[in-house]
Every structure is written in C-alpha cells, then in structure tokens.
Write a structure and sequence with these properties.
By secondary structure, the chain is an alpha+beta fold. It has helices at residues 3-22, 44-64, 115-124, 128-134, 140-155, 159-167, 180-190, 209-215, 240-250, and strands at 31-39, 69-77, 81-87, 106-109, 172-175, 196-206, 234-238, 262-269, 274-285. The chain contains nine helices and nine strands. A six-stranded mixed β-sheet has the order 5-7-4-8-6-9. A three-stranded mixed β-sheet has the order 2-1-3.
C-alpha cells in the first residue's frame, strides 16, 4: 500500500468519528480517544512502517478539528482497525437535536455519494476479471480521479457544515455512513417529532460511479441509496428559504477549499419514512483533479425539487 493511503486512512477514521458530533451542530470537541488494532499477520518491520502513518493521520485530523488525542487502546487482531471516541461537554444552545423537521423543509447533502464504488473500482484496476466488466463505461484515469476525490472527501471534516447549521437554522441532521443515503434518511425520519416524510429527488454522485454501478448490475445499490458510504456528508433539514444560501455559503473561500452542498429533496407531511423517487436526477460531481469541462456538476436549485 502507498504510504499516503495509510496516512489518509487515519485521517478518514478521525473525520468519521468527529461526524457524530458535527451531525448535531457541535463544532468543538473536548477530547478524543484512538482505538487501534494491529494485525497479527504483520511482522515487526511492517508494523513499524504502517501504524505510525495511520496514527499521524488520525492525530492531524484531530488537530484540524481543534482537539487532540489523549488516550485510547491498542490490541492485536487479525485485521488492522482504526477508530475512536469523541466527547464534549456543552450547553444546550450549542447542539441541535435531530428531530424538528417540518413540512416544507429542504434536504441538503454536503458530500457526494459513491465512495464505496470509487474505492472498489480502484482495486479492480489490478483485477482483470472485474475491470473487464466496467472498462467500457470508465477509463483508468477517471477511476484514479474518482478514487482521489473519494479519499479527499472522506478525509474532509464536516465541521464547517456543523457551524453553518446554526447560522441557517437547521431543524435536524445526520451523517451519512454505513447505511447509505436512504438508510440514514430513514433513520432520521423515524426520529422526527412532527409527522413528516423525506423525499429524495437528486443524488450527487462522484462522476462515473453511477455508470459503474449500472455496468455491474447495480451490485452496489448506489442508485437505490443503500450503498455504504464512509465518512460521508451531513444530511440536513433546512428551512426552504435558507437552503440555497447554505449551499452558497459553504463554498465560500473563507472556509478553505473543497466544501460543497446540494439540495437533494424535500420534507413533506407523512408517516416518518424516507424514499428516493423512481428516477432520481443524478448530479455528476466532477473530481477536483479533473478539468471542469469533463462533467456537469451543477447544483440542484430549489426549483429542481419544487
């Protein structure tokens, strides 16, 4: 494995842990613990190369989040595992309970979908049998760009989005991880105090990942919304009049590069369920390393879901 991958794995793990706080609009973390398992299959030389890189990635992401790792636990295991715990003590005004969506709210997503597909496709570059299934719909360069975009996206903290949840009066939010966009939307819908349902019209997906999932007979279930994501974005319920402003503000250079957001659906009166419409609009999200003319990465405007 490339050393940059190991470092990024640590960063991604830390970003993923912190997202549980960010999903409640909490921007500051008091303390982090790192949970590490070292593979029994690795020899001492491999351990001394691999583990420090992962630990450094985790610590650097914690520092970026304004916190630090003060402890944790390390064990031996058949596999390498890295994760952690993030804790904070705060005032009730500092967090937003994920339960106050109302009919008329708009659903906003702050990272593109398709990380699982991008990582798998990248592994398939070295697997001719798998690669032959998708090579007609995607080039090696596009897979490499998608992989880099997925890595960058997964390692990006949701901290900026968490802060803007307060600015734009968010009613509820969750982070998108292992259950996919639909699974987490359903979980969030079940928590709502009001009788509402979520309807998703648009799916922002890393460019070409939708084509790959179709070429594989939808094995990833990406277009069904159940493809697992790792360290995905925040799914936020915002008042309709605030959603477009949130999407514009998060892209401001003052927050650094790489933050994006898309309006992906609506909150309507209902029985606390979530669904994706039959033919959702696929928003092809151009990887940062690609030329802008390659793909259409327009934002979905509020009109697109009216």
């Amino acid at each position: 494995r490339r050393s940059s991958d190991l470092y990024m794995q640590g960063r991604i793990a830390c970003a993923n842990v912190l997202s549980d706080l960010y999903a409640m609009g909490i921007t500051d973390c008091d303390n982090m613990l790192m949970l590490l398992s070292i593979s029994q299959k690795m020899n001492e030389e491999e351990r001394e190369k691999v583990m420090p890189l992962m630990i450094k990635g985790f610590r650097d992401a914690a520092e970026e989040g304004g916190t630090s790792v003060t402890g944790g636990q390390t064990v031996y295991n058949p596999w390498i595992i890295i994760g952690g715990v993030a804790t904070v003590v705060c005032q009730t005004s500092e967090f937003i309970m994920p339960e106050n969506a109302v009919p008329g709210d708009v659903l906003v997503l702050t990272k593109p979908l398709g990380t699982q597909v991008a990582v798998n496709a990248h592994q398939w570059l070295d697997n001719p049998e798998r690669w032959n299934k998708i090579k007609l719909v995607v080039s090696e360069e596009e897979v490499e760009l998608a992989y880099q975009e997925a890595m960058y996206s997964m390692a990006t903290l949701n901290r900026t989005a968490a802060g803007l949840m307060h600015t734009f009066n968010a009613h509820a939010a969750t982070d998108i991880t292992g259950f996919g966009i639909l699974g987490h939307a359903q979980n969030l819908a079940k928590q709502q105090l009001n009788e509402v349902s979520f309807v998703i019209h648009n799916l922002p997906i890393i460019a070409k990942m939708a084509a790959i999932t179709k070429a594989c007979g939808n094995r990833f279930k990406l277009l069904h919304g159940t493809s697992p994501e790792t360290s995905g974005g925040l799914l936020i319920c915002l008042p309709r009049e605030q959603a477009a402003r949130f999407c514009a503000e998060i892209k401001s250079p003052k927050y650094g590069e790489g933050h994006q957001a898309w309006i992906i659906g609506i909150v309507e009166k209902g029985n606390r369920t979530a669904r994706i419409i039959d033919k959702p609009r696929i928003i092809e999200v151009t990887p940062r390393g690609a030329t802008s003319s390659t793909h259409d990465s327009n934002n979905a405007s509020p009109d697109a879901i009216s």
